[in-house]
Design a protein that fits this description.
about 650 residues; 26 helices; Sodium-independent sulfate anion transporter-like; SLC26A/SulP_dom; alpha/beta; Transcription Regulator spoIIAA; elongated; membrane
Length: about 650
């Protein structure tokens, strides 16, 4: 979201509906209506299931489903995105509100909206970039496995309480003997139907030459696709009908959802005090209980939403800041209608894209259908079997496990496997929220490691064009983490290892005057452009004629003694204070027998160096040769440095 001087453009950037509604016509509306209805068939059963995953009654999933559609239609920029309950945020909501009541989830939604709005208006979207793709992949894969594991008890008809991945499997082995055969068979049937119907939408019917048959094949293709995307609704309805048929007043053969509160939610402010059992919680106690969730939940929502928006931008420029603001508004206003935290869903966005959505207005139509469902159908939710809801959740999260990235990272950047596997293992072993933090910490450590090893191109130059000197080409920003590494590497040029040129050769840069014909070596005494790695200079086997240098040993008469270091600053953007102090020590040590030149420094770098060094010597590429030659003409017995401190 840009800072705009035109007030109307500013309003349109915050409320994109003012921009696209000007060209909204009947054809566009029909496309959005079809997409809205199709998405609703996916959203409604998913929201009921995700409410169960979050630990609440089914109607809370529907409460969280309609406000986001309305608000995003006004403030969103990506037509495909549908805001509502998702498996990931439902799991996080359960993690932070388990053992409490819905007031905690509503308050979490409210605070998440405020944090996201603040992040958007304060232009803090760049913070998301500190969470790398490997960490996100490891986090979502672990979350998918945790979610699927938490639904095993629903698939088998078991009843036990567990909050983490490890505790779930422990309780499962304890209660495995209590498995209910009816619920197990129903869940197995639902999983088979869901996977089979999902495959229907991917069937491609071969085209035929006859136009009449081609039209029929096209209709059949669209019908199969529609059946495939509405699979969740079909399975839930069929399971509910089956449960109603076999229902008994005293003892039900299936575990059902049970009685729920019918009707629409009454708009009200989030509760800042609540009672759970016999315990009353104040606002401070509620915030304390939610803990890190006040930051983790909005952060995960932002990461997911921006990633989905990028995936469906189709080459268009994405206003990530506006997406963050829109998501924050969805959560903020949703909290007044008893919603728990929501964000965009990749599955529903893909359905919307395939349905031919045109504008974000499709969210209006989806929201209306959800409201009608709340008003008319909630009494019938009593008969929805929990096994069917568990099957819907498990089949929905299977695609979240990303195994392809392992091969990609192995072939491109194996070091990135560390944060991926670290976040994955920590999420499973320590919990979702702790695992995400661990992944970010590993990312930060790798980032610091990279900064502590900045790329340096150190060359000994003796090409006959410029007087012989050492040259360094740093690039990018130079920061505290790499300060000591850079200084040590440059100082090591004065103290090379035994297998390189002797110390006397580096401490005495030999210049043979042209008048000494017996000692002339045509400027090639030391190989042209020898690279130095870790302070070691390659031996002198590449010398032109070897009269004065043989196997790295210096011969002949030396009449000039000096050391020159040229730092090319054209690719340096800035340096922090610690790095500047390290340079100060470097110049002090180098000035004992030589000089340091700063070539092609930009104004910011010049200003920084002037504030730290005394009379640093700046020049451009054209002036460099003159300055180097002038330095060599001085009396070698005088120890002069124009960067003395």
């Amino acid at each position: 979201m840009l800072k705009l001087s035109n007030p109307m453009r500013l309003v349109e950037s915050v409320l994109p509906i003012l921009r696209w509604s000007k060209s909204y016509d009947l054809r566009t509306a029909i496309g959005d209506l079809i997409a809205g209805i199709t998405v609703a068939l996916t959203l409604i059963p998913q929201s009921i299931a995700y409410a169960s995953l979050a630990g609440f009654e089914p109607q809370y999933g529907l409460y969280a489903s309609f406000v986001g559609g309305f608000v995003y239609a006004i403030m969103g920029t990506c037509p495909q995105i549908n805001i509502g309950p998702t498996a990931l945020l439902s799991l996080l909501t359960f993690t932070y509100t388990s053992g409490t009541n819905a007031d905690f989830a509503v308050l979490l939604c409210f605070i998440a909206g405020i944090v996201q709005l603040f992040a958007g208006f304060a232009q803090l979207g760049f913070l998301v970039e500190f969470v790398s793709l490997p960490v996100v992949s490891g986090f979502t894969s672990a979350a998918a496995i945790t979610i699927a594991s938490s639904q095993i008890k629903g698939l088998l008809g078991l009843k036990f309480s567990a909050e983490t991945f490890i505790s779930t499997w422990k309780e499962l082995f304890v209660h495995i003997g209590e498995t209910r055969m009816q619920d197990t068979l129903l869940s197995l049937f639902c999983c088979i139907v869901l996977m089979g119907m999902k495959a229907l939408k991917d069937i491609e019917i071969k085209s035929v030459i006859n136009d009449k048959n081609r039209k029929g094949m096209l209709i059949l293709q669209r019908f199969l696709w529609f059946v495939g995307v509405s699979r969740n609704a079909v399975v839930v309805v069929l399971a509910a009908v089956l449960a109603y048929t076999v229902h008994e007043d005293k003892r039900d053969p299936l575990i059902l959802t049970g009685s729920i509160t019918p009707g629409l939610p009454i708009p009200q402010a989030p509760a800042f005090h609540t009672t759970v059992g016999n315990t009353t919680y104040t606002a401070v106690e509620m915030f304390t209980h939610l803990g890190s969730g006040l930051l983790v939940v909005p952060l995960v929502g932002i990461i997911s939403n921006v990633a989905i928006a990028k995936a469906f931008s189709n080459g268009r420029t994405l206003d990530a800041t506006q997406e963050i603001v829109a998501l924050g508004a969805c959560n903020l206003f949703g909290a007044f209608f008893r919603s728990f935290p929501v964000n965009g869903s990749f599955t529903r966005s893909a359905v919307s894209e395939a349905s031919g959505v045109k504008t974000p207005a499709a969210g209006f139509y989806t929201g209306v259908i959800v409201l009608l469902t709340l008003a008319l159908l909630t009494p019938y939710f009593f008969f929805i079997p929990r096994a069917a809801l568990s099957a819907v959740i498990v089949c929905a999260v299977l695609h979240m496990v990303d195994t392809d990235i392992l091969k990609k990272l192995w072939n491109t950047s194996r070091l990135d496997l560390i944060p991926l596997l670290g976040s994955f293992v920590c999420c499973l072993a320590l919990g979702i929220e702790v695992g995400l933090i661990c992944g970010v910490v590993v990312d930060m450590l790798l980032l610091l490691y990279y900064h502590s090893r900045p790329p340096l191109d150190i060359v000994y130059v003796n090409d006959g064009v410029l007087p012989a000197h050492f040259a360094i080409h740093p690039c990018g920003g130079l920061y505290f983490a790499g300060a000591e590494q850079v200084r040590s590497k440059l100082i090591s040029l004065r103290k090379p290892k035994n297998n390189s040129i002797p110390a006397t050769a580096l401490e005495t840069l030999t210049i043979i005057p042209d008048s000494d014909n017996n000692g002339t070596s045509d400027g090639n005494n030391i190989a042209n452009g020898n690279h130095i790695a870790n302070g070691n200079l390659s031996n002198g086997n590449n010398n032109a004629n070897g009269n004065n240098v043989t196997n790295g040993n210096i011969n002949g008469n030396f009449i000039r003694s000096t050391e020159l270091l040229v730092v090319y600053c054209d690719a340096v953007s800035r340096m922090d204070y610690t790095f500047l102090q390290s340079l100060k020590m470097l110049v002090a040590e180098w000035s004992r027998g030589g000089r340091v030149f700063w070539c092609d420094a930009n104004p910011l770098v010049k200003e920084q160096l002037l504030n730290v060094l005394q009379d640093p010597h700046f020049c451009d590429a054209e002036q460099l040769r003159i300055l180097l030659a002038g330095t060599l003409s001085e009396d070698s017995q005088v120890n002069i440095s124009d960067t003395q401190l």
